[in-house]
Each structure stands twice: as structure tokens, then as C-alpha cells.
Design brief:
about 220 residues, 18 strands, Hemopexin, mainly beta, disordered N terminus
Amino acid sequence: MLFLGAYAKHKFIDGKFVITGHLSKKTDEISGIAASAINKDVFYVMNDSGDRSRFFAISPKGKILSSIAYTWNNSGQHDCEDIATGPGPKAGKSYVYVANIGDNKSDRDFICIYRVQDSPAFATQKTVDAKASVIYLKYPDRPKDAEAFMVDPVDKLMYIVTKRMDSVTVYTAPLNASANDTTILTKRCRLFFPGIKPFKWITSGSISHDGRYVLLKSY
């Protein structure tokens, strides 16, 4: 698991932090990270709201390998918060999912996920233009603020875990949800984590490529 600071990657060894890499100023507000399933030792990261429609491929030491700009037939993005990799509509192919799910005011009519097919070019070319498909999602109850998005490669589900409140809520949608249509999320459960708000709020999540492990991150 990578722990990324503002401009450096650290290891905690014998009670001390050791800097093992540096991040570019282009990645000044990383909000999500995911390992590529087809490019060895390549991680995808994206900035929080305010950046263009893009994500970066970086090395384990934080070096930018590629900047991937994605386009789709719609208006600009709102608040991208997390990124994941996993299967998708084409068998045997891997995809990058950028989650536009932030909603500080809890007033969005829908949220959306941008899906881009992973490519070896993301690790070898400095800039790449990619086409994204868009999956629109709507909560079954009321709008929520969320920052944690995960892809379950076994059950073929997208997971969203809300951020605020004393207990957070888990929602899912099928990975085969039709692009450009609006899918109603399924409410699965509520989770309570001990601690003090806002430090216990859930800000990111990930599921391992074999589906065996789930990580939820707080502040």
C-alpha cells in the first residue's frame, strides 16, 4: 500500500519516516490512487476538484509517466474524488474508473463515473488522449457526499461509501450499468467506525484485484 504525502512518498521504518520518492507539483492534490492491472509497477492518480479531466500514471517513486486526458460527450466534471481499476464491458480488458461523486452540499441530482479502457500507452507515452464512457448514478433516498469508490472484480460491482455522519452508508451498482443511462444505486448497509468527527470520515477505499481485501481510509 502506498502512503502519499503532498510531495513525497514515505516508508515508516524503525520508528522513522524515510523518503523514497517525490511527487510532481502537477499532482498537487491527489485524491485517489489505483494500481494498473496491465502495466507493472504503474499507479493511476487524480487530483481533487478544480483540475482538468485527466489522471496521471506514476511510478512507485512518484515520477509521472503519462498524463491521460479523457473526453466524453457531456458537460464538465464536478468533483472527482477517487479512482479505481477493474473489469468492464469487454471480457479480458481492464478499465480505469474516475469517480465524480463529491457533493459537499448534498444537492446533486446525480453523480457519475468516467470509465476509460486501460492501455499500455498509459505507461509509455507522455501524453495520451482517451475516450471515456459515463455511468450516471442516483441515490435511492437523497443526495450524499462521498469520496470512497471501489470496484469489486469478483461480484462485478461498483461500491460507494458515503463520507459524513456518525455512520456511513454503503451503496452498489453493477459494473455493466449502461453508459449514458441513469442507474439507481442499491443501499447495502450502514457502517459505524469509532472515533471523532471529522477524523473518522471515510475519504477513500480500495478492493484488491483478487477481491479478497477491502481498505477504507479516513483522515
